[in-house]
Amino acid sequence: MEKKIEKILPFVENPARYIGNEINIVIKRKSQIKFAIGFPDIYEVGMSSLGIRILYGILNKRDDCFCERFFSPWVDLEEFMKKEKIPLFSLETKSPLHSFDIIGVSLSSELNYTNFLNILYLSNIPLFSEERKDFHPIVIVGGNSTFNPLPLLPFVDAFVIGEGEDVINEIVDTIRENKGSRYKILENLNKIESVFVPLLKKERVKKAFVKNFNESYFPVNYIVPLTNIIHDRISIEIMRGCGQNCKFCQAGSCWKPVRIKKVDKIVELAQKAYQNTGYEEISLLSFSAGDHPEIEKIVMKLVDEFKDKKVSISFPSLRIDTFSFQLALKIKEIKKTNLTFAPETGEKLRKEIGKNISDEEILNLALLARKNNYRHIKLYFMIGLPNETDEDIKDVVKLINEISKIIFVKTSFNTFIPKPHTFYQNKRFITKQEYEEKRNYIITKLKKNKYVKLNFQPYEVSCVECFLGRGDEKLSKIIHNVWRKGAKFENWSEFFDFNKWIESFKEEGIDINEYLKESDFSSRWNFIEV
């Protein structure tokens, strides 16, 4: 099969997505347990996942297991694979996925559900768990989307709820000890408190989390891709969890408790990862890096360590109220980083949702940015929050206008999505008409302002995320139907087709509004203890 793959790769858009052979990969052709781990999107997206890298490293440390990676093939390769009858394969040894003992998939977005089905289909693995035999791989899913696993129940053998670093070894041990009997494997996986097996079910599932985060595994032998990826840098997780308790935020409620890595450990990991890769950027990863109690010390130590090597230090996200501007100036000694913040809404409603930041503080930040030669700041907002009024939308417009008098503003507007396990989990999702009215008002008031750039996430995309995020098992029929209609890569605007979802709801006789209105949705997932 490897020769077949090599033959077709010259004819696809980016062969480097599929050839493997990157710096720091692991190849072990003989082990008791064969584990394929992947992400249901293309290589450039999947290789930006730190979680995939961590589990890959943990599994390959074991003598009895080898782990290889896979990602969704782009449409050009998929056509060749179907034509040449080549099943989806791993990158390391080009082995077909159906030959592995375990298939592990990280699902971070509901928009990846159709790609997940497509991966199973392209791997010649039955889509439905009940149809798989002893010789088929055990299909395991983890990630953000598992906190409500119901819409995917028929397709998944086992869900891992929470953080996978510790439980992954229990899973491998269980499969090794019961290899050959699918039922025994599932029966014993179901005994692990953070694993949920749909075919067997259990009353309570307790979220897994890493207790000793400071000593948790980090892949210092960071794989260096042969092509550009979205986050093409070393990402070091300095803190896990968020203590802010914003009412809309699933990350804050599901990934608690808050745990930190110590300064010296962070510097040590950065040094080792740099030595093994030569990357010129190190990103300090967390839900809000500024919340780390020793963030300034971390930055100063990293700057001192790497400034002569011309390595930049960056943050993927910063909260306004924890941000030290002196920190940004310190980072500028190496490379100027973008300023990205999330006011979310106007000041009055902002306090109600749990963000205690005043407009005055935001305006002061803009002034400091301009004085220090920043050209723009990016601000994230939501529309459609619970209890939102016309005055709140007017407050958002007013704030943007005021900031634009100081510095150029790039905005990103998303529609509020009531997520499982949050304070707002049972609230309604606004209608398309309400969305259009709010969006049109904002555009009308700001379109003539040449110092503002507006960007809106399409309403329909957020709508799909909402009904899948709060869905029950009935929606598995919708997902399957939409996939059969050709849906995939729905995180990509050129592939997203809302009509397929609407048609499938009608064909299955299910009312989409039942999943968008205010209701006691939490009763569906309250068996999961976060």
Number of strands: 17
Give the overall silhouette.
globular
Number of helices: 18
Terminal Cα span = 44 Å
In what order do the strands lie side by side in the largest sheet? 2-1-3-4-5-6
Percent strand = 5-15%
Using only C-alpha atoms, the radius of gyration works out to 23 Å
Poorly predicted regions are none
The overall pLDDT average reads: 93
- Please describe the biggest sheet, giving its number of strands, its sense, and whether it closes into a barrel: 6 strands, mixed
Pairing-aware structural class of the strands and helices?
alpha/beta
Q: Work out the helicity level.
A: 25-40%
Structure description:
There is one protein chain. With 530 residues, this protein is of the alpha/beta class. The protein has helices at residues 2-8, 43-46, 50-61, 75-84, 113-122, 167-177, 182-189, 250-254, 263-277, 295-306, 325-331, 347-352, 359-371, 390-404, 432-446, 459-469, 475-484, 498-508, and strands spanning 33-39, 65-71, 102-106, 138-142, 158-160, 195-196, 205-206, 234-237, 239-240, 259-260, 281-285, 312-314, 340-344, 376-383, 408-415, 452-453, 528-529. A six-stranded mixed beta sheet has the order 2-1-3-4-5-6. Strands 13-14-15-16 form a four-stranded parallel beta sheet. A three-stranded parallel beta sheet has the order 8-11-12, with helices on one face. The chain is globular and about 65 Å long.
What descriptors fit this protein?
four-stranded parallel β-sheet; 530 residues; six-stranded mixed β-sheet; alpha/beta
A few lines on this structure:
The protein is an alpha/beta fold. It has helices at 2-8, 43-46, 50-61, 75-84, 113-122, 167-177, 182-189, 250-254, 263-277, 295-306, 325-331, 347-352, 359-371, 390-404, 432-446, 459-469, 475-484, 498-508; strands at residues 33-39, 65-71, 102-106, 138-142, 158-160, 195-196, 205-206, 234-237, 239-240, 259-260, 281-285, 312-314, 340-344, 376-383, 408-415, 452-453, 528-529.
